[in-house]
Amino acid sequence: MYRSKLLWVFLWVLPFSISAQYDWSVGGYLGASSYLGSVGGGSTPAKAFIYDVNFPSTRFGLGGFVNYKLNPRFSFEAILAMDRISASDNQSSYLPRELRNLSFRDDIYNLDLLAQIYVFEIPGLVQNFKLNIDLRCYVTGGVNFFHFNPEGQYDGQWYSLEPLHTEGVSYSLWGVGIPMGFGSYVSVNRKHRIGLELLWTKTFTDDLDDNGNDSHNPGRYVDPSTLSSPAAVALANPSNEIVSKFEGNAAAEKLLSYNYQPGGLRSAVKGKDDSWFTYSVTYAYAIRGKSSFYRSKYPGLFGKSMKKRKIRAKF
Description:
- The chain is mostly beta strands.
- Helices cover 15% and strands 42% of the residues.
- Strand 2 (59-71) and strand 3 form a beta hairpin.
Protein backbone atom coordinates (compact mmCIF):
# COMPACT_ATOMS: atom_id res chain seq x y z
CA MET A 1 0.00 0.00 0.00
CA TYR A 2 2.75 2.41 1.02
CA ARG A 3 4.80 1.55 -2.06
CA SER A 4 1.84 2.09 -4.41
CA LYS A 5 1.22 5.56 -2.93
CA LEU A 6 4.90 6.42 -3.25
CA LEU A 7 4.86 5.27 -6.86
CA TRP A 8 1.80 7.44 -7.58
CA VAL A 9 3.51 10.51 -6.10
CA PHE A 10 6.64 9.77 -8.09
CA LEU A 11 4.69 9.47 -11.34
CA TRP A 12 2.95 12.78 -10.58
CA VAL A 13 6.14 14.69 -9.79
CA LEU A 14 8.35 13.16 -12.48
CA PRO A 15 6.89 15.14 -15.41
CA PHE A 16 7.29 18.34 -13.39
CA SER A 17 10.96 17.84 -12.64
CA ILE A 18 12.14 16.33 -15.92
CA SER A 19 9.70 17.07 -18.71
CA ALA A 20 8.60 20.54 -17.71
CA GLN A 21 9.04 22.88 -20.64
CA TYR A 22 8.42 26.23 -18.93
CA ASP A 23 6.74 27.39 -22.13
CA TRP A 24 5.76 30.94 -22.86
CA SER A 25 3.07 31.66 -25.41
CA VAL A 26 1.51 34.88 -26.68
CA GLY A 27 -1.78 35.24 -28.48
CA GLY A 28 -5.21 36.77 -28.68
CA TYR A 29 -8.89 36.02 -28.80
CA LEU A 30 -11.96 37.20 -30.67
CA GLY A 31 -15.44 36.29 -29.59
CA ALA A 32 -18.86 37.25 -28.28
CA SER A 33 -19.95 38.81 -24.99
CA SER A 34 -23.30 38.33 -23.26
CA TYR A 35 -24.56 40.33 -20.31
CA LEU A 36 -26.45 38.96 -17.29
CA GLY A 37 -28.44 41.54 -15.32
CA SER A 38 -31.81 43.18 -14.85
CA VAL A 39 -32.17 44.94 -18.23
CA GLY A 40 -33.61 43.05 -21.19
CA GLY A 41 -34.00 39.31 -20.83
CA GLY A 42 -36.72 36.89 -21.76
CA SER A 43 -40.44 36.59 -21.25
CA THR A 44 -40.47 36.24 -17.46
CA PRO A 45 -39.16 38.13 -14.40
CA ALA A 46 -35.37 38.04 -14.04
CA LYS A 47 -33.96 34.58 -13.40
CA ALA A 48 -30.64 33.49 -11.99
CA PHE A 49 -27.51 32.92 -14.03
CA ILE A 50 -27.87 31.96 -17.71
CA TYR A 51 -31.64 31.44 -17.65
CA ASP A 52 -32.24 35.11 -18.46
CA VAL A 53 -29.71 35.60 -21.27
CA ASN A 54 -31.01 37.52 -24.25
CA PHE A 55 -28.84 36.36 -27.15
CA PRO A 56 -29.93 39.11 -29.62
CA SER A 57 -28.12 41.51 -27.27
CA THR A 58 -24.83 39.63 -27.64
CA ARG A 59 -21.93 41.84 -28.68
CA PHE A 60 -18.19 41.27 -29.18
CA GLY A 61 -15.04 40.82 -27.15
CA LEU A 62 -11.37 40.88 -28.08
CA GLY A 63 -8.06 40.78 -26.26
CA GLY A 64 -4.48 39.64 -26.05
CA PHE A 65 -2.78 37.37 -23.55
CA VAL A 66 0.49 35.96 -22.33
CA ASN A 67 0.58 32.41 -20.97
CA TYR A 68 3.29 30.81 -18.84
CA LYS A 69 3.21 27.02 -18.70
CA LEU A 70 4.61 26.13 -15.30
CA ASN A 71 4.53 22.39 -15.93
CA PRO A 72 2.46 19.88 -17.93
CA ARG A 73 -0.54 20.32 -15.63
CA PHE A 74 -0.59 24.01 -14.67
CA SER A 75 -0.19 27.35 -16.38
CA PHE A 76 -0.77 31.02 -15.60
CA GLU A 77 -2.25 33.58 -17.94
CA ALA A 78 -2.63 37.36 -18.06
CA ILE A 79 -5.28 38.81 -20.39
CA LEU A 80 -5.81 42.42 -21.43
CA ALA A 81 -9.23 42.69 -23.05
CA MET A 82 -12.22 44.78 -24.03
CA ASP A 83 -15.68 43.19 -23.84
CA ARG A 84 -18.76 45.07 -25.01
CA ILE A 85 -22.09 44.20 -23.42
CA SER A 86 -25.55 45.60 -24.07
CA ALA A 87 -29.23 44.98 -23.40
CA SER A 88 -32.59 46.52 -24.17
CA ASP A 89 -35.95 46.09 -22.48
CA ASN A 90 -37.72 46.31 -25.83
CA GLN A 91 -36.27 42.87 -26.66
CA SER A 92 -38.09 41.36 -23.68
CA SER A 93 -41.68 40.16 -23.89
CA TYR A 94 -42.22 40.57 -20.15
CA LEU A 95 -44.61 43.51 -19.78
CA PRO A 96 -42.99 45.34 -16.81
CA ARG A 97 -39.68 45.34 -18.64
CA GLU A 98 -41.19 46.44 -21.93
CA LEU A 99 -42.83 49.39 -20.18
CA ARG A 100 -39.63 50.35 -18.38
CA ASN A 101 -37.90 50.60 -21.79
CA LEU A 102 -34.32 50.86 -20.48
CA SER A 103 -31.35 50.14 -22.72
CA PHE A 104 -27.57 50.54 -22.54
CA ARG A 105 -24.23 49.55 -23.93
CA ASP A 106 -21.01 49.21 -21.96
CA ASP A 107 -17.36 48.72 -23.00
CA ILE A 108 -15.54 46.90 -20.22
CA TYR A 109 -11.74 47.10 -20.20
CA ASN A 110 -10.31 44.38 -18.02
CA LEU A 111 -7.10 42.74 -16.87
CA ASP A 112 -7.55 39.05 -16.02
CA LEU A 113 -5.02 37.05 -14.00
CA LEU A 114 -5.85 33.37 -14.36
CA ALA A 115 -4.60 29.93 -13.42
CA GLN A 116 -5.28 27.00 -15.75
CA ILE A 117 -5.44 23.36 -14.72
CA TYR A 118 -5.24 20.80 -17.52
CA VAL A 119 -7.75 18.02 -16.90
CA PHE A 120 -7.61 16.02 -20.12
CA GLU A 121 -5.23 15.61 -23.01
CA ILE A 122 -4.64 13.47 -26.09
CA PRO A 123 -1.03 13.77 -27.18
CA GLY A 124 -0.41 12.76 -30.77
CA LEU A 125 -4.06 13.08 -31.80
CA VAL A 126 -2.73 13.39 -35.34
CA GLN A 127 0.85 12.42 -35.94
CA ASN A 128 3.00 11.88 -39.00
CA PHE A 129 6.37 13.08 -40.20
CA LYS A 130 4.96 16.50 -41.23
CA LEU A 131 2.16 17.12 -38.76
CA ASN A 132 1.76 16.69 -35.03
CA ILE A 133 -1.50 17.68 -33.31
CA ASP A 134 -2.15 17.46 -29.55
CA LEU A 135 -5.42 18.17 -27.75
CA ARG A 136 -5.71 19.70 -24.27
CA CYS A 137 -8.71 20.62 -22.13
CA TYR A 138 -8.57 22.81 -19.02
CA VAL A 139 -10.51 24.62 -16.35
CA THR A 140 -9.54 28.15 -15.39
CA GLY A 141 -10.22 30.78 -12.75
CA GLY A 142 -8.71 33.82 -11.11
CA VAL A 143 -9.30 37.51 -10.54
CA ASN A 144 -9.77 40.52 -12.77
CA PHE A 145 -9.74 44.29 -12.48
CA PHE A 146 -11.98 46.24 -14.82
CA HIS A 147 -13.21 49.68 -15.81
CA PHE A 148 -16.69 50.15 -17.22
CA ASN A 149 -18.79 53.04 -18.51
CA PRO A 150 -22.49 52.38 -19.30
CA GLU A 151 -23.94 54.55 -22.06
CA GLY A 152 -27.47 55.32 -23.19
CA GLN A 153 -28.71 56.73 -26.48
CA TYR A 154 -30.84 59.87 -26.68
CA ASP A 155 -31.74 61.79 -29.83
CA GLY A 156 -29.17 59.83 -31.86
CA GLN A 157 -26.29 60.53 -29.47
CA TRP A 158 -24.64 58.30 -26.87
CA TYR A 159 -24.26 59.65 -23.32
CA SER A 160 -22.25 58.31 -20.37
CA LEU A 161 -24.94 57.47 -17.85
CA GLU A 162 -23.08 57.68 -14.53
CA PRO A 163 -22.52 61.49 -14.69
CA LEU A 164 -26.25 61.95 -15.41
CA HIS A 165 -27.18 60.32 -12.06
CA THR A 166 -30.25 58.69 -13.57
CA GLU A 167 -31.07 57.08 -10.20
CA GLY A 168 -29.93 60.04 -8.12
CA VAL A 169 -26.65 58.49 -6.99
CA SER A 170 -23.01 58.19 -8.04
CA TYR A 171 -21.14 54.91 -8.30
CA SER A 172 -17.61 53.79 -9.02
CA LEU A 173 -16.68 52.86 -12.59
CA TRP A 174 -13.98 50.46 -11.35
CA GLY A 175 -14.55 46.92 -10.18
CA VAL A 176 -13.06 43.58 -9.22
CA GLY A 177 -14.41 40.33 -10.61
CA ILE A 178 -13.88 36.59 -10.48
CA PRO A 179 -13.53 35.07 -13.96
CA MET A 180 -13.98 31.31 -14.25
CA GLY A 181 -14.59 28.85 -17.05
CA PHE A 182 -13.15 26.15 -19.24
CA GLY A 183 -11.61 25.68 -22.65
CA SER A 184 -9.61 23.49 -24.97
CA TYR A 185 -7.06 23.88 -27.71
CA VAL A 186 -5.14 21.89 -30.26
CA SER A 187 -1.38 22.35 -30.63
CA VAL A 188 -0.17 22.13 -34.20
CA ASN A 189 3.47 21.12 -34.42
CA ARG A 190 3.83 22.24 -30.78
CA LYS A 191 3.89 25.92 -31.76
CA HIS A 192 0.45 27.00 -32.93
CA ARG A 193 -2.42 26.69 -30.45
CA ILE A 194 -5.98 27.14 -31.69
CA GLY A 195 -8.75 26.88 -29.14
CA LEU A 196 -12.21 27.64 -27.81
CA GLU A 197 -12.90 29.15 -24.38
CA LEU A 198 -15.95 30.04 -22.29
CA LEU A 199 -15.37 32.52 -19.46
CA TRP A 200 -17.93 33.86 -16.98
CA THR A 201 -16.99 36.93 -14.93
CA LYS A 202 -18.81 37.36 -11.64
CA THR A 203 -18.69 40.93 -10.35
CA PHE A 204 -19.53 42.70 -7.11
CA THR A 205 -21.37 45.63 -8.67
CA ASP A 206 -24.95 46.02 -9.86
CA ASP A 207 -24.15 49.07 -11.98
CA LEU A 208 -22.77 47.69 -15.26
CA ASP A 209 -26.17 48.56 -16.76
CA ASP A 210 -26.74 51.83 -14.79
CA ASN A 211 -29.63 50.02 -13.11
CA GLY A 212 -28.74 49.11 -9.56
CA ASN A 213 -30.58 47.86 -6.52
CA ASP A 214 -28.30 47.51 -3.52
CA SER A 215 -27.31 49.33 -0.34
CA HIS A 216 -25.74 52.35 -2.10
CA ASN A 217 -28.19 52.47 -5.01
CA PRO A 218 -31.87 51.81 -4.20
CA GLY A 219 -32.83 51.55 -7.87
CA ARG A 220 -35.80 53.94 -7.91
CA TYR A 221 -37.06 56.63 -10.23
CA VAL A 222 -36.07 60.16 -9.23
CA ASP A 223 -37.88 63.46 -9.52
CA PRO A 224 -37.07 64.69 -13.06
CA SER A 225 -36.73 68.26 -11.74
CA THR A 226 -33.55 67.17 -9.92
CA LEU A 227 -31.84 65.98 -13.11
CA SER A 228 -29.34 68.09 -15.00
CA SER A 229 -30.46 67.96 -18.63
CA PRO A 230 -33.18 66.80 -21.05
CA ALA A 231 -30.98 63.81 -21.89
CA ALA A 232 -30.79 62.84 -18.23
CA VAL A 233 -34.59 63.12 -17.85
CA ALA A 234 -35.22 60.99 -20.94
CA LEU A 235 -32.66 58.31 -20.06
CA ALA A 236 -33.74 58.13 -16.42
CA ASN A 237 -37.31 57.25 -17.37
CA PRO A 238 -37.69 56.21 -21.02
CA SER A 239 -41.08 54.61 -20.29
CA ASN A 240 -42.56 58.01 -21.20
CA GLU A 241 -41.51 57.42 -24.82
CA ILE A 242 -43.75 54.40 -25.34
CA VAL A 243 -46.95 55.28 -23.46
CA SER A 244 -48.87 55.60 -26.72
CA LYS A 245 -47.88 52.06 -27.75
CA PHE A 246 -49.89 50.58 -24.88
CA GLU A 247 -53.04 52.68 -25.09
CA GLY A 248 -56.05 50.47 -24.41
CA ASN A 249 -53.96 47.81 -22.66
CA ALA A 250 -55.51 47.75 -19.17
CA ALA A 251 -52.60 45.90 -17.52
CA ALA A 252 -50.05 48.27 -19.03
CA GLU A 253 -52.02 51.39 -18.14
CA LYS A 254 -52.35 50.20 -14.53
CA LEU A 255 -48.60 49.66 -14.27
CA LEU A 256 -47.82 52.99 -15.90
CA SER A 257 -50.11 54.82 -13.49
CA TYR A 258 -48.08 54.05 -10.37
CA ASN A 259 -44.85 52.14 -10.92
CA TYR A 260 -42.96 54.33 -13.41
CA GLN A 261 -43.22 57.48 -11.32
CA PRO A 262 -40.73 59.16 -8.93
CA GLY A 263 -40.11 56.80 -6.02
CA GLY A 264 -41.23 53.75 -7.99
CA LEU A 265 -38.97 50.75 -8.52
CA ARG A 266 -36.60 51.06 -11.47
CA SER A 267 -34.99 47.68 -10.74
CA ALA A 268 -36.93 44.95 -8.98
CA VAL A 269 -33.96 42.59 -8.74
CA LYS A 270 -32.34 43.24 -5.38
CA GLY A 271 -28.91 41.88 -4.45
CA LYS A 272 -28.23 40.36 -7.88
CA ASP A 273 -24.90 41.67 -9.13
CA ASP A 274 -24.28 42.00 -12.86
CA SER A 275 -21.96 39.65 -14.74
CA TRP A 276 -21.01 38.71 -18.28
CA PHE A 277 -19.91 35.79 -20.44
CA THR A 278 -17.33 35.68 -23.20
CA TYR A 279 -17.15 32.81 -25.68
CA SER A 280 -14.15 33.11 -27.87
CA VAL A 281 -11.82 31.60 -30.42
CA THR A 282 -8.19 31.81 -29.29
CA TYR A 283 -4.85 31.63 -31.04
CA ALA A 284 -1.43 31.51 -29.42
CA TYR A 285 2.13 31.02 -30.58
CA ALA A 286 4.24 28.95 -28.21
CA ILE A 287 7.83 29.92 -27.47
CA ARG A 288 9.38 26.75 -26.18
CA GLY A 289 12.27 26.53 -23.76
CA LYS A 290 14.25 23.51 -22.60
CA SER A 291 13.72 21.47 -19.48
CA SER A 292 16.05 21.55 -16.48
CA PHE A 293 17.03 17.98 -17.36
CA TYR A 294 18.14 19.16 -20.79
CA ARG A 295 20.12 22.01 -19.27
CA SER A 296 22.00 19.74 -16.94
CA LYS A 297 22.78 17.27 -19.71
CA TYR A 298 23.78 19.84 -22.34
CA PRO A 299 25.12 22.86 -20.43
CA GLY A 300 27.15 24.16 -23.34
CA LEU A 301 24.01 24.98 -25.28
CA PHE A 302 22.83 27.44 -22.60
CA GLY A 303 25.76 29.83 -22.59
CA LYS A 304 27.94 27.91 -20.12
CA SER A 305 31.38 27.36 -21.51
CA MET A 306 32.56 23.78 -21.32
CA LYS A 307 36.00 23.13 -20.00
CA LYS A 308 38.39 22.62 -22.82
CA ARG A 309 41.17 20.13 -22.51
CA LYS A 310 44.47 21.85 -22.94
CA ILE A 311 46.88 20.04 -25.20
CA ARG A 312 50.52 20.97 -24.82
CA ALA A 313 52.73 20.20 -27.74
CA LYS A 314 55.79 18.17 -26.96
CA PHE A 315 58.99 18.67 -28.96
